[in-house]
Design goal:
- The protein has 23 helices and two strands.
- The chain starts with 8 loop residues before the first helix and ends with a helix.
- By secondary structure, it is mainly α.
- It has three domains: about 55 residues; about 190 residues, no CATH class; about 230 residues, MetI-like (MetI-like fold).
- The chain is flat, with a radius of gyration of 33 Å.
- The chain has a two-stranded antiparallel ribbon with strand order 1-2.
């Protein structure tokens, strides 16, 4: 007698249905496993394709920037703007020294009013000698400024006519493409004798040398008899001003030599176009004088804001992950974990408005509190700066770091903890010496993903970083965090809607995007190196 089947009719029916469906899929040439594998493999393939298309698009749109930038630098040289800029730099340095004197005057006024208790009118009267000194110092460059202004007008006119010719050439090309030959023939280009017109600029070198010598003599006489100041620290600053002025005057001969050796016909190599972008200290667009596309201020601003954000997010995110996973009670876990993860649901534009209306103003007011006067950079007047943006970006990065670090800690084998307790280690010793080192690779990955979240953020930095395109003054030490900055993501979001497709400014923004792409690649490369090195050392 055959044994009685141990399965129920319902189970037999399910098995038969599964076999029938499996046979049907085989009719199509695929099994269930192959279908599932193809589905998920297809998703990965689509992701690779999308990434490749994005990369291709960035390269395609940004590839011609460096040739356009070389043309931009070429006309800057051919029109004589480069020559005039030698003297303009001399004028800018003098203006910086004048601002130093203005700051010294303000400090002296505060000394009279705050420390000596003098009325404002009497304090101003005591500053009369200093004011005469400062006025003579500032007005000493008038002859030089007048000469440079005239030369600048000539150089700008040459550049303007060159740009008009480019516009006429483009108009002619469009008319010919449309078959309007007669109308295209009426568009005439105005010939420009670059060498002859620039020669008129360089012919003024003797006049510039004479004006520069008179200017230098005036400054030397001025700093030889400086005004008396009422406090030793103020006198020390005035002595520093004298030293800076002497250093400034010592550079005059080098400026003259550079102007003598300048050659408007010297070609601009393509490498200079690249270095001018990567190491350039100015991002200046829509300028009547010259457009500059130097990304260094944007890189410095992005890195400064990211470092501030990580300085806040790493201890908070990793610390919260360790506490929730190892120390918190179940009730605390149910309260803390959703609260932290909820931050990631807040739109970044809302956080940006919070930074403008609340956080920035609070930090500005708090910087003036007397018991915080020891903090570098306090007090400060700009409520929108790197510190405000960095604090908000740190808040944005905390959920990412917390979630991934907590998962990494949770994946540490339980046997590690039990072995540590068996050897007599306390809970704190186990966390510090066993749990955290064992999950370090995951924590590092969490931090790097948090960095990627921060450095790619746009809206917060656009609203709260201050958007000043200048390299931060790192000589201020930690006080640099209170300075306004601009970032790579911010400049793309701010200017992309205003540029003409195909123009050099348009291409420059795409190259900034490419730079962000390569920074992300480098971060991932170094992360992998760190993780592999750590794994080797553990092994």
């Amino acid at each position: 007698m055959p044994p009685e089947s141990s399965t129920t009719p319902a189970v037999d029916s399910t098995v038969r249905s599964f076999r029938i469906q499996k046979e049907r899929t085989r009719i199509l040439g695929l099994t269930w496993d192959e279908c599932i594998q193809g589905f998920f493999g297809g998703n990965a393939f689509v992701a690779v394709i999308v990434l490749g298309l994005i990369t291709f698009f960035l390269f395609r749109e940004g590839s011609s920037f460096f040739t356009q930038n070389r043309d931009n630098l070429t006309i800057y040289r051919q029109a004589g703007l480069e020559y005039v800029d030698f003297g303009r730099q001399q004028e800018k340095d003098h203006a910086a020294l004048s601002r130093y004197l203005s700051d010294l005057r303000l400090r002296t006024l505060r000394h009279y009013t705050d420390q000596e208790g003098l009325p404002a009118k009497e304090a101003q009267a005591r500053l009369a000698e200093f004011d005469r000194f400062a006025d003579r110092f500032s007005s000493a460059s008038k002859p030089l400024r007048s000469l440079l202004s005239d030369l600048g007008d000539v150089a700008v006119d040459i550049k303007a006519r060159h740009q008009n010719n480019l516009n006429f050439a483009e108009k002619r090309r469009q008319l010919l493409a449309a078959g309007k030959t007669a109308e295209a023939a009426e568009v005439e280009l105005v010939p420009i004798d670059y060498a002859g017109e620039v020669a008129a600029i360089t012919a003024t070198l003797p006049d510039f040398a004479e004006a520069s010598a008179t200017f230098a003599k005036t400054l030397e006489d001025l700093i030889a008899t400086p005004p008396a100041l009422p406090a030793p620290e103020l006198t020390e600053r005035l002595t520093r001003f004298q030293a800076l002025t002497r250093d400034y005057l010592a550079g005059f001969p080098a400026t003259l030599e550079a102007m003598k050796a300048w050659d408007p016909a010297r070609p601009v190599p393509l490498a200079q176009s690249f270095t001018a972008f990567v190491f350039g200290r100015q991002w200046l667009t829509a300028s009547f004088w010259q457009d500059w596309y130097g990304v260094m201020p944007l890189i410095a601003g992005s890195l400064l804001v990211s470092l501030i954000a990580l300085a806040l997010a790493v201890p908070l995110g990793v610390g919260a992950a360790v506490y929730v996973n190892q120390l918190a009670s179940p009730t605390e876990q149910r309260l803390i974990k959703p609260s932290i993860e909820f931050i990631s649901a807040i739109p970044s534009v809302v956080l940006g408005f919070f930074g403008i209306a609340v956080l920035g103003e609070f930090l500005r007011v708090a910087s003036g509190w007397s018991f915080l006067a020891w903090v570098p950079g306090f007090p400060f007047a700009e409520r929108l700066n790197a510190l405000t943006a960095g604090c908000l970006l740190g808040l944005i990065a905390v959920p990412t770091i917390f979630t991934l670090a907590e998962d990494a800690i949770n994946n540490v084998p339980r046997a590690f903890k039990e072995a540590s307790y068996a050897l007599g280690a306390s809970r704190l010793q186990t966390i510090i010496r066993i749990i955290v080192p064992a999950s370090l690779s995951g924590i590092v990955s969490a931090i790097l993903l948090g960095l990627g979240r921060v450095i790619g953020e746009t809206m917060v930095v656009l609203l709260c970083a201050g958007n000043r395109i200048a390299i931060p003054d790192f000589t201020a030490g930690l006080g640099v965090v209170t300075q306004p900055v601009h970032t790579m993501t911010g400049i793309i979001a701010q200017e992309m809607g205003e540029v003409e497709p195909g123009a050099i400014h348009y291409r420059a923004l795409f190259v900034v995007g490419l730079l962000l792409f390569f920074i992300a690649l480098l971060l991932n490369f170094f992360a992998q190196k760190i993780v592999r090195k750590y794994k080797v050392s553990i092994g």
